[in-house]
Amino acid sequence: MTPLQCKMARTALGWGVIDLAREAHVSTQTIVRFERGDQLKSQTVGNLRSTMEAAGVEFIPENGGGVGVRLKKPSSTE
Description:
- The protein is mainly alpha-helical.
- The chain has one domain: lambda repressor-like DNA-binding domains (434 Repressor (Amino-terminal Domain), Orthogonal Bundle).
- Helices cover 51% and strands 10% of the residues.
- It is built from 4 helices and 2 strands.
- A two-stranded antiparallel sheet has the order 1-2.
- Strand 1 and strand 2 form a beta hairpin.
- The radius of gyration is 12 Å and the shape is globular.
């Protein structure tokens, strides 16, 4: 997950920095530092990613069109 993907995923979920920090159990400064391009521990980035994936985000790898995010399709049981 790139810093830009993190910001795009938060926006897609309607989350601010405080929301992601609360859900991922990290400080708001951790989110701010990552989104401005600072290096974080891979475990911390993985935690942020898995938190947003659990909330319904899919991360799209670069596939000729650049990295991105999208919301998961709702399951048909809902």
